[in-house]
Structure formats: structure tokens, C-alpha cells
């Protein structure tokens, strides 16, 4: 797997990110689930230029766009951020999510210099909540009926992990990731 800054990824990969973002199986787990048009996508890409509070990476697998992973709300004073990712539904269930999570945790606590990482997951996505917990995230709360999706209020699960917690978890997970990398 390879991770490219979306602004360096070039127009072909950027267009593929928009197509992936518009996939129904991805949109159902996103806060904003309307189809993204070319202009809205271009505006979003433009907003990333020089933005110190957000960093977005295209995930490449065998040279093709497999998903997106991002750090959001980066706070350099408190050294915290939120993060999110999504994968091509055709590639889910093959260990790629675990490899993305491992990479992002290493990136956040090393290159990005963070001390705390947070994430929010729709309660309708228990598979991702379970994945985060396996990587050492602690459930910190639930925002009850926080998001409106398809006319219904949905809960949002809040999770977090500190740098020290990641460093304690990392050695055991490295062996798992090494096995997944050989697939």
C-alpha cells in the first residue's frame, strides 16, 4: 500500500476519489451523504491547499485508488486531531482497513507529532468501532441522536487513543500487520 497526499496525487486519482466517495456503500456511513459533483469536489480540493488543520491521503493498493484517510481538526497547540478513513467496498474484509489504521496511527504519533487522536463512528457501523477498539482506542462516549440520516436520528460513537496507548499496543499489532502485508 502507498499513501499519497491528495494534492500531490494528480487529477486522475483525485477524480477516482470523488467516484469512490459517491459510492452508495461509502456514503451510508458518512455524515454528508449527498452525491458530490465535480465543482463541489474541486472546491474541497482547493480548500486543502495550505490548510494546516487538515491532511488528506489517497490510499493506493496495487496502483489503484483503494480509499482515503485523513487527519482533521489538527490542533498544534494541544497536539490533537480527529481522523477518518474509507475504503473501496470491493476491498473491505481483506485486512486493508487494519493496515490503513496502523499506518495512520504511526503517522499521527510520529510525523504529525500528535499526542491524542480522536474519531467518530456512526453507531450503525459496529464493524469499524470494533476495529478501532482492537487497535487500542477507548470508547469515550456516545453523542445520542446526533446525526440525521435518511430521515432518522443516529447515534455517534466517540473513540480516542493517546500516543502512549498506541506505543503500548503497537508491538503486538505489528506482527498482525506483517502477516496481512504478505497477502
Q: What is the CATH architecture term?
A: 3-Layer(aba) Sandwich
Shape: globular
Could you estimate the helical fraction of the residues in percent?
A: 25-40%
How many independent structural domains? 1
CA radius of gyration: 16 Å
How do the SSEs run, as a string of H and E? Answer: EHHHEEEHEHEEH
Question: What is CATH's topology name?
Answer: Aminopeptidase
Total beta strands = 7
Largest sheet strand order? 1-2-3-4-5-7-6
Which superfamily, in CATH terms, is the homologous superfamily?
A: Gcn5-related N-acetyltransferase (GNAT)
> What's the tally of helices?
6
What structural class results from the helix and strand content? alpha+beta
- Average pLDDT confidence is 94
Low-confidence runs: none
Q: What keywords describe this structure?
A:
6 helices; alpha+beta; 34% strand; single chain; 7-stranded mixed beta sheet
